[in-house]
# Entry
Amino acid sequence: MRHARRRIVRRATRLAAVGGVILGGVMVTQAVASEPPPTNLTFSSARAAGTTGSDLVTELGTDRTAGSWIAADGKPVVAVTDAQAAAEVEKAGARAKVVDHSMNDLKSATQTLRSAPRVAGTAWAVDYTKNEVVVQADSTVSAADWAKLSEVAKSIGGSVRMERSQGTFTTRINAAQPILSTGGRCSAGFNVTNGSADFILTAGHCGPNGSVWFADAGASQEIGKTITDSFPINDYSLVQYNGGSAGDGADVVAIGNGRGVRITGVADATVGQKVFRSGSTTGLRDGKVTGLNATVNYPEGTVSGLIETTVCAEAGDSGGPLFSEGIALGITSGGNGDCKTGGTTFFQPVTKALAALNVRLIGQAGQAAAPAPSATAPQSAVAPGEAQPGSVAPVTGGSAGEALLERLTDPKNVGPGLLIVGGSLIALVATRWFRVEQDRRNYRRSYSATWS
# Structure
C-alpha cells in the first residue's frame, strides 16, 4: 500500500511538472506575441519627430491643421483638414490624419469654455489624437454645475467630450528637493540665471513674493527669498539665492543613488512624448504628454497654458521638474489621482516661464554647458556634485528588487513563463532523481536480505 501511494505521488508530480512546462511555454509565446514594436528611439530621432510635426503645423497653418504628436512607433503625425494638406505632410516624411475640426475650431471651443462661469474642480485640454477638447470634472463638482457645463459643451458641438474623473484637482505643494517657508513646504525645480544672479524656478502657488525659504525644517539653512510669482493664471515663481550663486552642479537634476541628469536645454513638450517627473513623495515617475494648452480650475484660481500628462503625482510632488532627454519641459503644478491608481498631472511650461521672467536655464547659451546626452545612456546620468537645492530634485524610483518584481509580474513579459518552465524542468529532474535513489535503496535492502 505504501509503495502504491508513492507511485501515485510520483506520477502526480511528473504530470504537474509536464503541465508546468506546457503552461510556461504558452505564456512565453503569448508574451512575445504581445510585445509592442521597439520604441527605444535615440534622442535625435525623438526630437526630430516632434520638430517635424510642429514645423508642418506652422507651415500649413491652424486653419488646415489640428496639432501634431509622436506615434507609438516614434513617427510624427499631423492632423489635417483636407487632402492637399495630407499630401504635403506625407511628402515631408510624416503621417497625416484627416480630421473634422481645425485647431482654430478647437481653440474657439476652449475660449467658449473659458468664458462660461468658472467651476472649481474642472479642467480641459485639446486631445490632438482624438481631435476634440476633453473636459474633466472631479469629485467636488456638483450635479448642477456638471449639468450647466454640459449644456455649454453641447452648444459648442461635437468637438467637446465631457468626462468625470476620480479624485480632486489640487495643487501639489511639497516636491522634489524640499524648500520650506512659513507658508509651507515646496519644491526646487530648475536653476536659472539672468546673467548676474541665480534663482530657483519653481511653482508659483508655493508662496507669494517675500517668502523666505530654508533647506531644513529647523529654518537654520536659509536658501533665499521669492522675488516674483505668478499664480493663478500662470504657475511659476523665482526664488533668489542668498549670495546670488547656485553653486557647482547647478545644471543637474538628481535622480537618486548619487546620480543625476544634466539639463542641457529647454523645449516645448510634444503630445505623445515620453517624459519624466521627479518628486520627493513618489520619486522618479514617467508617462507621456497627452495635451497642451490645458486649463485647470483649481480652488485657488484658474491656470491656463499647461502641459497635460499621464505622469502620476501626489501631495509633496509640486514644483518638481518635468524633463525628457536632458531637456527641461515643465514644472509640476497640480492634478488628480495618485501613483497607485494613476491620474492626470499638469505642468507649467518652462519656455513660457523663462520668457516671462527674462531668465535662462543654467547650462544654456552663455553658460558652461555640458555635452549633449548620449543616445545610448538614457537621461545622461552624471554625478550631481555639490549643487544648491534648486539645481537638484532628488528622485528615487523603486528598489532593484521592486523593479525586478514588476518586470516578472508583467503579463506582457516573458519572465513569468520562463520561471514556470524552469521550475517545472527542475521538478521533473528532481522526481526522476528521487525515484532512482529510491530504487537503489530498495535494491540494496533486497540484495542484503537475499545474501544473508
